[in-house]
Amino acid sequence: MHPKTTKERSRSVNFTYPSRPDVQILNDYNVTIEPGQTVAFVGASGGGKSTLISLLERFYDPQEGSILLDGRDVKTLNVKWLRSQIGLVSQEPVLFATTIFENIAAGGNEISRDQVMAAAKLANAHNFIMSLPEQYDTLVGEKGVSLSGGQKQRVAIARAIVREPKMLVLDEATSALDAESERVVQAALNDLMDKTRMTTLVIAHRLSTIRNADKIVVVNGGHVVEEGNHAELLTIEDGIYNKLYTIQEEKAQEEAQAAASALKEAELGEPHSQSLRHHSSRSVNSDHMEEDKKASLEKADTSKTFTIFDAIAFSRPERSAFIVGIFAAAVMGCALPSSAVLISELVATMTTNYTLYKESNVQSALDDLKHDVMVYGLCYVGGSVVMFLAAATQNYCFKYMAEKLTSRLRDIHFTALCRQNIGFFDEKKNATGALTADLSTNATKVALISGDSQGRVVQAIFTFVAALVISFTTGSWLLTLVMLAVFPFLIAGQMVRMHQMKSSGHLSDELSDVGAHASEALSNIRTVVSLGLENSICGKFSALLEEPLASGRREAQLNGLALGFSSFILFATYSLVFWYGGKLVDDREINFKELMRTLMAIMMSAQGIGNATSFMGESDNALKAVHTQLRQLSVVEKVTPEVKAKIESLVPFVPEVAKPDGTEKRRTKFL
């Protein structure tokens, strides 16, 4: 199919958006676009101009009627092929966070560098690209932030035409630009349409840009009300186009007169401008400010190391809940060793009485056993009630603290982000997806080492102390000393495991790139599908996942080894303690009840301490998270100097105004 042969026709189209089914957008919409024509659509906002493009690209399908392309209903065409025949340039150009070359090449399949340069020349973008330090390999930043509005739009135009589309669609391509950028982009578009003569659809808001269109379609209330070229529509005295054109021309003349008057006043005030400069109490050199900002950023990165105590300090407003929670945690800490005493007493009593009954056939031994079991059972039930109340209180108090801390840190983090300098967001690591992920997860990570974790630390301390007291006073001091001697081995095993868990925290950093890529693609999904980049985007997403998956596999293997090592140390220690305890009983150094008290107290305490300190694997990541948040806040404070100045100016600001003849004069003076 030759680029000049595409004919588009909309026949009796009726359409409402799924999100607003009660609002009729297009109502019996009929329009025909001949091959090679340049057709402009004008009208009030909400009249249905841009909706036709959405239907043509098949973002939606009409409820009634049809869109025909060379006589075929677009519903019968392959969607990917259909979109490959259309070059779309939107009002807000969407560029991806990659190089200029890759952005333009995204417009087609297997696009060569020569094709990219040819498209850039047609779009009047080649010269400014070649003036950049890296030329076509220049990174444009997230959403093309390193380029001006006019430059981004010309790159978007080059991307739209590099595929040599059969139809070019310009959806208010210059409406968001300033006068100078609009002039440059419009000149590029006019030159492009003259050279290619491809079928072109133009959605316009400034009627001066579409005077040379082959056909102008006026849309109002969802249907076509006027058709014709510029001259024909001006002959309709009460026509909508005639009124719109007259209003815009009058406004342009008023702006031109205001600009001329402002320029004249500026020229008259020129001799006095020098004396006014002395009224400023402080002058700021922009280059020096940028250097100061960079130095402040670097200094803020290393000026302070945030510790767990800094994180805990943020929970100071909830100190009353903290005190109550600490008391409840102390009760819970003593509960496990106390329950160990009850269990050891019960096991020892059952063993002794049942042995006595078997050996001596003493019936009273069984009767006493029933009574003792009942007493110990009731004591255990009473202890369970106390543990329930203590656990509920501890959980509530520290969870409350954690939620308050999370909310407070998110507020601080978001405030810091809002106050960052624009250059902060230009950095690749500060992509929108990564920042929103940090905002979502960092505060939660910090809460892991505060709130509930503080309660578990207190619980572990009281558990350990209570276990030692019980073992030394009611158990075997010899066996207790042996168990204390092997405690370093237990700690070593736990430290290996915790160290491995800390080292696996870098996976979140690798996944932040994946999140940023997904965020960029989903937030610009219309551009992605109109360019047919679905497979490319998904392929890059899969490629970005490969490294985290490989790292995750390695971390899983190392974590398995670390867990196996810590388990080996634990059970090897238990084996040693059981052997030595049995030897002490055999040597009549201790009795069975003392053995059980010591073993149960220490073993159950070790289990409780392990559970209470399980958060330590995340402490490193949590401290990094709070460091990130507070560092951003400190950076803002450092790069926002307090400036006290008196500024006076007799030279007014002169806006950019296009004159009726198409030229413009701009003069801006700051004092």
TrEMBL record:
Task: Report which superkingdom the organism of origin falls in.
Answer: Eukaryota
The residues covered by the ABC transporter domain are: 8-246
Membrane-spanning intervals of the chain: 321-343, 373-398, 561-581
The UniProt keyword set, sorted, is: ATP-binding, Membrane, Nucleotide-binding, Transmembrane, Transmembrane helix, Transport
InterPro entries the record matches = AAA+_ATPase (IPR003593), ABC1_TM_dom (IPR011527), ABC1_TM_sf (IPR036640), ABC_transporter-like_ATP-bd (IPR003439), ABC_transporter-like_CS (IPR017871), P-loop_NTPase (IPR027417), Type_1_exporter (IPR039421)
Query: How is the protein disposed in the membrane?
Result: Multi-pass membrane protein
- Supply one GO molecular-function term: ATP hydrolysis activity
Positions of the ABC transmembrane type-1 domain = 323-618
> Basic and acidic residues compositional bias: what residue ranges?
285-298
Its Gene Ontology cellular component terms are:
mitochondrial inner membrane
Location(s) in or outside the cell: Membrane
Region of interest called Disordered, as start-end residue ranges on this chain: 256-298
Q: Which Gene3D superfamilies match?
A: ABC transporter type 1, transmembrane domain, P-loop containing nucleotide triphosphate hydrolases
A biological-process GO annotation? oligopeptide export from mitochondrion
Q: Which PANTHER family match?
A: ATP-BINDING CASSETTE SUB-FAMILY B MEMBER 10, MITOCHONDRIAL, ATP-DEPENDENT PERMEASE MDL1, MITOCHONDRIAL
Tell me which family the UniProt entry assigns to this protein: Belongs to the ABC transporter superfamily. ABCB family. Multidrug resistance exporter (TC 3.A.1.201) subfamily.
Q: What is this protein called?
A: ABC transmembrane type-1 domain-containing protein
**Annotated source species:** Phytophthora nicotianae (strain INRA-310) (Phytophthora parasitica)
**What are the leading ranks of the lineage?**
Eukaryota, Sar, Stramenopiles, Oomycota, Peronosporomycetes
